[in-house]
Amino acid sequence: xxxxxxIITLLASSIFLTIIICIWKILATLQGLNFTNLNFNLNLSxxxxxxxxxVFIGKKFNxxxxxxxxxxxxxxxxxxxxENSPMWFSVGIFLLILxxxxxxxxxxxxxxxxxxxxxxxxxxxxxxxxxxxxxxVILFPFYxxxxxxxxxxxxxxxxxxxxxxxxxxxxYEIFKSYFVIFKTYDFGRYILTSSxxxxxxxxxxxxxxxxxxxxxxxxxxxxxxxxxxxxxxxxMFPAIVLVIPLYTVFSQLGLRNxxxxxxxxxxxxxxxxxxxxxxxxxxxxxKEIEEAGLIDGQNWFGxxxxxxxxxxxxxxxxVSLYVFMIAWNEFLFSLMFLDNPKTFTLSRAINHLTxxxxxxxxxxxxxxxxxxxxxxxxxIYFEKYLVSGLTAGGVKG
Amino acid sequence: MxxxxxxxxxxxxxxxLLPAVCLVFAIILFPIxxxxxxxxxxxxxxxxxxxxxxxxxxxxxxQDSNFELKxxxxxxxxxxxxxxxxxxxxxxxxxxxxxxxLDKRCEFKSQKVKCFFGNWEAGYRENFEIFxxxxxxxxxxxxxxxxxxxxxxxxxxNILLTTDFTLKNFKNVFINNNFFELLMTTFYFTFFGTxxxxxxxxxxxxxxNQKFYGxxxxxxxxxxxxxxPVVALAYTxxxxxxxxxxxxxxxxxxxxxxxxxxxxxxxKYLIINILxxxxxxxxxxxxxxxxxxxxxxxxxxxxxxxxLQAIPRDLYEAADVDGAGPFRKFxxxxxxxxxxxxxxxxxxxFIWNFNKFEDIFLLTGGASGTLTLPISVYQQGFAVSNxxxxxxxxxxxxxxxxxxxxxxxxxxGKKANEI
Lengths: 397, 419
What we know:
heterodimer, A: 2 domains, B: alpha+beta, MetI-like fold, 14 helices, 17% strand
């Protein structure tokens, strides 16, 4: 029993350690270090050695001192056995090992002797691995997007792996891509258009959705059940089946290449979900409050403005943020409706940049950062509201 | 009394609903029905523009004369396909200026040259000239004449409103365009994209449902791929996967994993040899599916996490007493609790992935075996410029979609309300 769990601990933890060291090495390669071999076997044997020592020492020694000495030894050995690596790389290795041995704190021979322990151990390292995996898989593209925007065309051609930012250059040189996209490619205007369209969509959607949602939530009328089911069904129809008729009609009406046309379409496509989300919240407001308003002589307009809206601000915030995100990120309609660079939104402008194969990739990435950063910042700041918006409207996407 | 009250209530409800319903009707429902109309017509992208009579005005001096000028109107029918009927022309001349030897089709009244040109066939062109002179025999400034623009009017058919129908588009969709392969690619993409996103979502939700340092941070970043704009993310991935100096290919070559860069997005098949068997993998399609999974697993994660957090704690405590490990707890307690939400998620995500356009369009544009039905709508309508065909494909999508929805409501419609 003891032997089995020891082997499992060894396998799980050493593979995990090897993988995180390899990931660190790959990330270091992207900073311009010239590694060409991951030394998987060497890493694995070093890791096994480390873990065996760690487990056998167990709690016989002061924990902090133990992990510090072990990490230092491992780092020195690792640096010695590997190709020449700079100080910061070794420091990274040291911190990784420190973190790892700290995780191994409770693992000693006594702990491994418990019942059903092997399943727990595998699960624990699988979870650790999952954290690293998800963080890497998600953040890596964002990291590449960000870092590439600071490179120059020649540097990227000479060594596509080296994505380090050269801080010895002056600020203008470092941020050159951003200066270029704002000056030559007119991104300032696109940011304004995108903001105008997104904020406009939010306002018009709320203007239309709040009364409609109130009617669905509170009033009795013929065809109410039909309407509430059709809201969801309409919501299921994708933009791609609307595109051709809208394109033809908008062309004939001269609404193509106009921001107003885009506003109408965005509002209509987000309305069903906005109504759906708001009516759910309105239903949760106690009816007695409105009845009090009715006795005070308010009509429905007064009730909506003075009672419903102030009470449902969180839901309105969720809807607004969700609609803002949809409008800001929207691509299909802006591709179809906008041909004139003067009316481009950010998404359309970036797509337009790629139309020219000569556009250097750092400009493309700088544009991508410009369109991504605002929405990510808004998401992080208002996460609570946006998450509830996503959950309610998230069936679509 | 109560009937008047309910009447007022009903009227209020309709007033409140009217703007939203009208807008949704005009922008969503009307186009869905308009698709049916257009799909039975032979319409190209060029036909959409209503034909207009056009004129370009050029003023020329005449040699040996200071008092006479020649005005040339370059007339044309803007459409190369359709006729214009009853074309009327009028242009105002400045004071004291008068046409000489006016064309038979025209008359001069109250300083205006008015002409009736009759019918212009498709692609009609004519250089129409008039000579003008000053009544007082003074010289004329040509800028003076140029300032006024001629006014042209004509009648033409809007091809969208005529009643000639054809079945040609549907014949093309089902017979000539490899419809079966198109459908299979769409289903392959949809099925694996949905399945992968849900599996990854289960892992992520299970992970975030545990306690560990940095859990809230993890929860935020897990939603990044979905919150970020599709354009930026798709182009970042295109650059990452680029065969010439893309980061991932360069890294793989650098570490000797592969000898030559692989064109992950541009290669239709990858032939893999396993124990002598040759396996043909749809490479570009698989890459696109992976992008799809990467971008949409956050939604599955969000839903599953919400469900996981609602599972009563004592179930797990009871399992602890029985000595069940984490895997057993997952399969015997967690999994049965989330099957309902998983089936709903699968259906909804299936419908949405089935309609996905932007992701594939931005990554491959439908090339290298990644052509799905939504991409086909765009290709037929705008690349091949056949609006009718595009609409016919849209109709196919709508019909399949309605089928899915019926299945959805039959299977789990009731369950969805319970959750």
